Each structure stands twice: as C-alpha cells, then as structure tokens.
Amino acid sequence: MARTSSSPWTGCSTLSAPPSRGPEALDTISPPARVAFVGLGVMGASMAANIAKAGFRLAVSNRSRGKAEALEAAGAEWAASPAEAARGAACVGLCLPDTPDVEAVLFGPGGVAEGVAPGTVVIDFSTIAAAPTAGFARRLLEERGAHLLDSPVSGGPGGARDGTLTLMIGGDAAAFEAARPYLEAVGKTLTHLGPPGAGQVCKSANQLLVAAGVLAVSEALALGRKAGLDPAAMRQALMGGSARSFVLENHAKRINEGTFQPGFRAELMRKDTRLSLSAMRDHGVFAPATAVVAQMLEALVNSGRGGMDSASLGALVAELSGLEG
User: What pTM value is reported for the model?
Assistant: First the structure.
C-alpha cells in the first residue's frame, strides 16, 4: 500500500481506504454492459467515443447537449442528468474541470449518487485535489454502496483520441479489476497506486514534472537566443544527449515556432500546479521547484495567456529576458 507522512486525509501515517462493507465480489464490467460517461469536453468526448467503440452500451450526459451530437449519432444514449446516466450503468466515468465540479456532479441535485446502484464503479478521470477525492469515495461507499476510483490521465488530446492515455488510479483494488475493460478502452498504461486519492497525488507529481520541464526548456532557449545561438539548432543538439525529453521534443518546438494554439491551456496548467503546491504542503514536502513553477504559471495567466497552450511560458520567459517575438 502506498504510504505518506502526516496525511491530512486521515490524520494518520497511511493513505487509508474507505471503511469496508465486508467481502464483496464485483463482476467484471465487459462489453456489452451498459455504462455511462459525464463531461464531454476535449478529453471526455474522445474518451467516451472510445468506450462506445469498445462495444459498451453508452449513455452520456453533459451541461450542453450539443457536445454529445457526434456520440448520439454513433449510437450513444443521451441522458438529461448525471443521475439518469448512472441509472442501470455498471460503470460511470467523469471528466470535469475541477474539484467543485466533481462534487456537484456526484452529490448535487440530479447527481450521480441519485442514480447509482450498490456495486457500481464510478471512475473520475478529472484532475482534482486528492483530499476531497478520498472524501468523495468514502461518502459514495457509505451512502450508496458504490465505489469511486480516481483515475487522472496523462497523454493530452491526442492520447484521448487514440485511446493511449496513461491512467494513474487510486481506490479499491477489486473495483479497479472489475472496471479494467472500461479503463482499457481509454488508456494504454494502467497503474493502480493505492487507496482513494493516490491517483491524484501521482497526477500532481506528473504535472509538476511537466511544468518544471517547460520552464527549464523556456529558460534554456532564452539563454541560447541571448547568446546568439540558433534556437532550432540548439534544440536539435540537446535532443541528442541526456537532456532529451518529451518536453524538449514537443514544447520546445512550439516555443521556437511561436505556435501556442492550446493543446493544454495555461489556465488549466495553473490549476494543476496549484494542486501540486497544495499536495506538497499537505504532506510536508520541501518543494522549491513547485513553488517557483506555480508562481510562473500565475504570472503566465495574468499576462493574458491563460487561453494559450502552457508552452506559451516560453514566450513569457523570452519577454522577461528582453527578447522580442
């Protein structure tokens, strides 16, 4: 079991699971089982489409029905509320912007909790705070007998489209195994990390590594430009050595070309680095890199670039370094 020190989730030294309801056998949720998906944004719509392609009978719900049109045309059933989507579903997926959105969809009026049956597996693919996630899992189990897995993802819109996302999963191990076919419809790499909230802790670490990498690449490219180096040649040289990374390969190219159409918006990365900073604080981790990255993302959004890709951090660093364009 994953461990941490001084956990604010439980008041003890381990990440604890919600209280047991006794031995429970969960059937594997395989096609053509009826399942549901709530939240059809850039990521969610693609994930839902792959779940339907896997052979599941899919019900979908979203604040605006227009985003469900393509899914409905492909055979998905429209549900007017998350509760309606959850009724009769063996598994319910969520992909929502932030912690309050997840709480509202789970427990608000017309929420998932009104529709789920005991034994249902609810999977939250959102990136939200770990401590509330653990509380949501406990509440859903106690009130409805349903299991909540937190399964934040990495891989971006391309990974969502191709069904190759990396899934970082917290929650009951039996529920994870039962929902494996549903999870495999959206992701290629599935890792069960521990009890509820464990997936969100791992995602906070992931986002820190990505954001810190973008900041480091931004500074490196600015250094090269100020020293008179060709930034494209510099990137190519760095790609040949130990500095090679996904960030250098992809984000540095965006920075050099000045193409910041959003794959992952800066305002969302700011939200995620806030979560990283909170997780570090909650667990008493000395985290100067997290603090610096979080402040730079605040500055990036405040500079008016919140709707651009997070790689626009390179443009901010260049601007602060006295470089044009």
Answer: 0.89
Radius of gyration of the chain (CA): 21
For residue 317, the surrounding DSSP H or E stretch is helix 313-320
26: exposed, middle or buried (C-beta count within 10 Å: 0-12, 13-18, 19+)?
middle
Cα 277 from Cα 308, distance rounded (Å):
22
What phi, psi does 91 have (nearest 5°)?
-145, 140
**Residues recognised as catalytic:** 203
Rounded-to-integer distance, Cα 277 and Cα 293, Å: 9
Q: Is 228 helix (H, G, I), strand (E, B) or coil?
A: coil
pLDDT per position as a tens digit, 27-59: 999 999 999 999 999 999 999 999 999 999 999
Residue 234: CA count within 13 A, CB half-sphere: 19
- Cα distances (Å, whole numbers) of residue 247 to 111, 113, 216, 232, 273: 38, 39, 10, 14, 16
Walk me through the domains of the chain, giving residue ranges and CATH numbers.
34-195 (3.40.50.720), 202-320 (1.10.1040.10)
Cα–Cα dist 174/87, whole Å: 21
Rounded distance between C-alpha atoms, residue 95 and residue 36, angstroms: 12
Cis status of the peptide bond prior to 23, with omega within 30 of 0: no
